[in-house]
Design brief:
The strands form 3 sheets. The chain has a 6-stranded antiparallel sheet, with helices on one face. The two termini are 22 Å apart. By secondary structure, the chain is of the alpha/beta class. The longest helix has 37 residues. The protein is built from 9 helices and 15 strands. Strand 12, helix 9 and strand 13 form a beta-alpha-beta unit.
Length: 370
């Protein structure tokens, strides 16, 4: 998959941008706060209509402006796609593929897949479970339209249920709707669990092998899926998982009413990472955790290639400067093939990468294009 060109209007700090890219390596450099990360964020947004650093679309619209526009020309599946996103401050976004408006973000799945790696990801294992769920969600949404739709619905239902549990003592009539929300949450939650389990199983095939290669066979990486305790087989069909989720909800019903918060469901899921049989979050060194994260990201890249037959676009956002020379060399040696975007603060030569183009970004504009 190749992003041939990108056009932005009023996106973050870009008043207007038109750029064409190399199908191999694109090195983007400039000082901090000039727009390097914003450029990668725009590319990633076109792959799944999700941002790794904005919860709401309005956060990506330039201050004082009511709307923003993104357009990418993408070579994928032996075709050329024009992907467009129109973001509005006061209403919902609009997404288009080749001029046809999409009903849901899930319809973008498989057209453009991206793997984004930023400095914050180096703390993926050290952080709470929500960070690892975001990693899973961001990956699966690019491959499975049904998952993307179920995730959006689950988040909407979860917000509604949270408000019911928060406000019911002052308004007891709200409890009349609780059973309906529980059923619909369980239905969508069963879909999430099913797809997460299958994706983690594929991660188990790729990530440990990458980690072993990185460590010279000295370390063993292990992954497991932690979900609702009543679910006996997360890889089962959603219809089999559903009654188990409903049973868990019922057993926690009074506790949720007392706590006035949602305690049961896959919004508490976790991807558990161990190294040599010990929980990485607790016992791994900083170097080990960075190696593990690199293995997860590179495994995601390989799964995407396995799924689509094409390498995903790899977005390295100032991450190489955070790695020691050994890890930097390992990453660069593993990413041959496919299109790569790399941001850094200064123009620098990266051993192991050949060809490509260099862009100098300043104040939301390309000032040099080599």
């Amino acid at each position: 998959m190749i992003v041939n060109a990108l056009e932005l209007d009023f996106f973050r700090n870009y008043t207007h941008l038109e750029a064409s890219f190399d199908p191999r390596v694109n090195l983007i450099y400039g000082d901090n706060a000039q727009g390097k990360t914003n450029l990668l964020e725009a590319v990633a947004y076109l792959s799944a209509a999700r941002s790794h650093r904005a919860r709401y679309d309005r956060e990506m619209i330039m201050m004082g402006i009511d709307s923003a526009f993104l357009k990418g020309e993408v070579a994928s599946r032996d075709r050329v796609f024009a992907l467009e996103a129109k973001l509005f401050r006061g209403r919902g976004r609009q997404l288009f593929s080749n001029g046809v408006r999409l009903k849901t973000a899930g319809e973008l799945a498989g057209i453009l897949t991206t793997v984004l790696f930023c400095p914050e990801d180096l703390y993926l294992i050290r952080e709470g479970s929500s960070a690892r769920r975001r990693f899973l969600d961001g990956a699966i949404c690019q491959l499975r339209p049904r998952y993307s739709q179920a995730l959006a619905e689950y988040n909407r239902l979860y917000d509604h249920k949270t408000r019911i549990l928060r406000d019911w003592p002052e308004n007891p009539s709200l409890l009349q709707t609780l059973d309906d929300f529980n059923l619909r949450l369980a239905q969508t939650g069963a879909i999430l669990i099913h797809y997460r389990a299958h994706f983690i199983r594929r991660m188990e095939k790729h990530a440990p092998a990458i980690h072993a290669d990185f460590s010279g066979g000295r370390e063993r990486l292990e992954l497991s899926y932690e979900t609702v305790s009543t679910v006996t087989d997360p890889m089962a069909q959603p219809r089999e998982i559903l009654p188990q989720l409903l049973a868990h909800q019922e057993s926690h019903r009074q506790a949720e009413l007392d706590a006035r918060q949602c305690l049961s469901g896959p919004h508490k899921d976790d991807l558990v990472v161990s190294i040599g049989g010990q929980l990485a979050k607790t016992y791994a060194s900083q170097g080990q955790t960075r190696t593990a994260v690199l293995s997860l990201k590179l495994a995601q890249r390989e799964i995407f290639q396995e799924e689509t037959g094409e390498w995903p676009v790899l977005l390295l956002d100032d991450v190489l400067s955070e790695l020691d020379s050994k890890r930097q060399a390992f990453v660069l040696n593993r990413i041959r093939g496919g299109q790569v975007f790399i941001t850094c603060c200064e123009e620098e030569k990266l051993e192991g990468l050949e060809g490509g183009r260099v862009f100098h970004i300043r104040d939301g504009s390309i000032v040099t294009n080599i």
